[in-house]
Design brief:
The protein has about 725 residues and is an alpha/beta fold. Strands 3-2-1-4-5 form a five-stranded parallel β-sheet, with helices on one face. Strands 6-8-7-9-10 form a five-stranded mixed β-sheet.
């Protein structure tokens, strides 16, 4: 178990680009939030759009009238009917919207700054510093502000309207003053904005005239080609630098994305219909129609495919912070525990993410950290870990080839195939023995669930047990029936059952239509996926593919023990992975049972290959019974050995409603039988006076089971049952 350090966290976070701005916003020197502006205008809320626009644009009327709209050159819509006309939309917001009067609460500062030049860049710099509480003196050599805008009457009118807000801030304007920088010694900092007639050299990323000094520049004197947009951006940059200079903080830190840059946001445009620019006069209705063309650039590739992210209305970068906060807090409720335990850990997000971010890997590590530090309650995975213990305990079987002490091949069906379809496992084993008599069998669990539950030591112990058994049986080639087992047991020489069947099909087949659902365990196993499809082709099946398949396949809801930790998310995952009425072909029994249990149609490839009828997904109790029945059956039928069942098998009777509650509450018939048997044997039972029912209870591991029952025929009628799952620590 390795703790998650900040450096690793930042590296993981950086892979998710969802918080990066859309192309048009990144291409704008002022980073106008084009998505939000368009959304507001499309709804007719011009005032909200104006507030958003004016938040980053100090001179909104001026810029909306004169902006050169570099955003249009990089707009994601540009090749799908033409870029959004943001300048016209912003102009409509300024024209149609109104801003609420707000009282400004300025910080108390004694800092002073001189701004020389009353054009667009100088006024912008003065206004931005004034908003920060800096006392600004703006020097203008003529009798009016405006600079080069004075030649354009309409533009100058817009500028004059914008300048009205200067009076709200500690800004003094001195006209007819030809101030020289060397005469501004009384000021803490000086910004030069004198126009193209007084050019100066600046440090591009900060606007400094010389490093470490108090002199800064912006506008045409720093960039002769600067238009209104660049002048406003330059004025804001110079003001930011002066503010940092006055506060004695680093002038450069965190300013990498100041000004235009290329975003890393991945914008999915597949499926977006081309749509030309809105027609007609550019009035309010036109602006609404044009704004509605915005595709709201975002990177939601993983969210679109993942039930977990959809359920929690989050995305990887956002959720990462919640995870780290949840782990690192020393006191309080760890509210993200349930969400952390609800991810299937399947790795689909990594394959879909343009940056390759694997949220599942982080969450698996987080579970291990929380389990090791006793910050993860055991109950979400208690039932699943008990199931693992059953697979590698009472239901475990490791036998060599019949009549031998070792074997050349060892069939490992996995814990879930035998629990769901024991007769199918027996038929496959019989077929393997006919193909190669030196074949043994190993019934157990690969242990991957221990990692899902954050129990790294349990996983290591499980692996050591299996390795020792494999070595005892002569280190045979392992025949696996589950891709996840194949990946988990990679230390052995593994071959898939699908590869064995490709050599010779066990029966003749009739063509059928199936939609292949790839196992998430085969995400990085193209050879396995290809072998399954080839096998289907040879069986005469007509195959269709899902939207998410192969490396991007979705989880059925079992992975990561989601179905135990959060059944609601698990059901949503199954519905998302198998969304329609098609017959889904799986090669993972968990997928087959999850889809069937969720109301869909599914068949396992081995059921097709061996001509076995579809079966209803078993209950949790039936799964335990099936494992025992499989173990005893193989011992008797293949090895001629008889053992007594270890499970209690006297009949239990209950209604469909009780059966549903037992399944939801993860209460096994075996636990009910143990509680009733103990109560009847010791007469340690209560009588419920109102109903006449007996009440039995028994603690089994972390579980205390309570049963309300009465004798019925040759067994017992169960009217009610519930359990407590807890671990008491002293």
């Amino acid at each position: 178990m390795q703790m998650i350090d900040q450096k690793t966290l930042y590296e993981i976070e950086a892979r998710c680009t969802q918080q990066q701005p859309p192309p048009a916003m990144a291409g704008c020197p002022l980073h106008v939030e084009c998505r939000a502006v368009c959304e507001a205008v499309s709804k007719g809320d011009f005032s909200a759009a104006l507030e958003l626009y004016a938040k980053v644009v100090p001179l909104p009327r001026t810029l909306s009238a004169l902006c050169t709209a570099p955003c249009m050159a990089v707009c994601a819509r540009k090749d799908l009917g033409g870029a959004i006309d943001m300048r016209a939309i912003e102009e409509a917001a300024v024209r149609e919207g109104t801003r609420k009067a707000r009282r400004s609460f300025l910080p108390r500062r004694s800092d002073t700054a001189a701004v020389i030049g009353g054009g667009v860049s100088g006024v912008t710099a003065a206004l931005e510093l004034g908003k920060k509480g800096v006392h600004v003196t703006l020097f203008e050599r003529s009798d009016a502000l405006g600079g080069t805008l004075k030649a354009d009457e309409a533009a100058l009118a817009c500028f004059a309207a914008d300048c009205a807000v200067l009076a709200d801030y500690p800004i003094e304007i001195q006209y007819h003053t030809n101030m020289e920088p060397e005469n501004a010694a009384d000021f803490d900092a000086v910004i030069l904005a004198m126009g193209a007639d007084a050019p100066v050299e600046i440090i591009e990323d900060t606007g400094e005239v010389e490093a470490g000094g108090r002199l800064f520049a912006c506008g045409a004197c720093a960039n002769p080609d600067a238009g209104v947009l660049c002048c406003i951006a330059g004025g804001k940059k110079a003001a930011t630098s002066v503010d940092r200079y006055l506060k004695k903080v680093n002038l450069r830190y965190g300013r990498e994305q100041e000004g235009p840059f290329t975003t890393t946001l991945y914008v999915k445009t597949e499926g977006v219909e081309p749509q030309g620019m809105a027609a007609g006069e550019k009035d309010a209705d036109w602006a609404k129609a044009e704004a509605a063309r915005c595709i709201q650039c975002t990177c939601m590739r993983c969210v679109d495919a993942c039930a977990f992210l959809q359920h929690y209305k989050t995305y990887p970068r956002q959720f990462t912070r919640e995870v780290v906060t949840n782990i690192s807090m020393s006191m309080g409720n760890r509210t993200a525990n349930t969400a952390i335990n609800s991810c299937s850990l399947c790795g689909q997000c990594e394959k879909l993410c343009p940056g390759g971010m694997n949220l599942g890997a982080l969450l698996m590590q987080s579970r291990a950290v929380m389990a090791a530090t006793n910050h993860m309650p055991q109950w979400p995975f208690d039932f699943a870990l008990d199931d693992l213990a059953d697979s590698n305990g009472p239901s475990y079987l490791a036998k060599p080839a019949p009549g031998s002490d070792t074997c050349k091949y060892l069939f490992f069906p996995g814990c879930q195939l035998g629990a769901s379809a024991p007769e199918l496992v027996k038929r496959v084993f019989d077929d393997l023995l006919k193909r190669e008599s030196q074949t043994g069998i190993l019934l157990g669990c690969c242990g991957i669930g221990a990692l899902w539950a954050g129990r790294e030591q349990l996983f290591a112990d499980t692996q050591e047990k299996l390795k020792a058994e494999w070595a005892r049986l002569g280190k045979p080639k392992l025949i696996v029936a589950c891709p996840t087992c194949m990946k988990t047991l990679e230390w052995a020489d593994c071959i898939g059952i699908w590869d064995i069947l490709l050599e010779t099909l066990p029966i003749e087949h009739i063509a059928c239509d199936v939609c292949v659902h790839d196992a998430c365990g085969a995400r990085d196993m193209p050879a396995v996926r290809d072998a399954v499809r080839e096998l289907l082709h040879r069986m005469g099946c007509i195959v269709t593919e899902q939207k998410y398949s192969g490396a991007t396949t979705g989880c059925c809801g079992f992975g990561g023990y989601t179905q135990y930790a959060n059944p609601e998310v698990a059901n949503e995952a199954a519905a998302l992975a198998a969304p329609d009425g098609a017959m889904y072909l799986t090669y993972c029994m968990n997928c087959r049972d999850r889809f069937s249990k969720n109301g869909g149609k599914a068949v396992h490839i081995l059921e097709l290959a061996y001509g076995m009828a579809e079966h209803e997904p078993p209950t949790y109790s039936q799964r335990r019974d099936n494992r025992e029945r499989l173990r005893l059956g193989i011992l008797k039928d293949v090895y001629g050995e008889e053992e007594k069942p270890w499970l209690l098998h006297f009949p239990l009777y209950y209604s469909e409603d009780v059966a549903k509650k037992l399944e939801e509450r993860l209460i096994l018939e075996q636990h009910i039988r143990e509680a009733v048997e103990a109560a009847e044997r010791t007469n340690d039972k209560l009588l419920h006076g109102e109903t006449g029912l007996f009440i039995a209870h028994k603690r089994i591991g972390h579980i205390t089971v309570w049963v309300y029952y009465h004798p019925e025929k040759d067994g017992y009628q169960v009217e009610r049952a519930y359990s407590h799952r807890m671990e008491v620590r002293v």
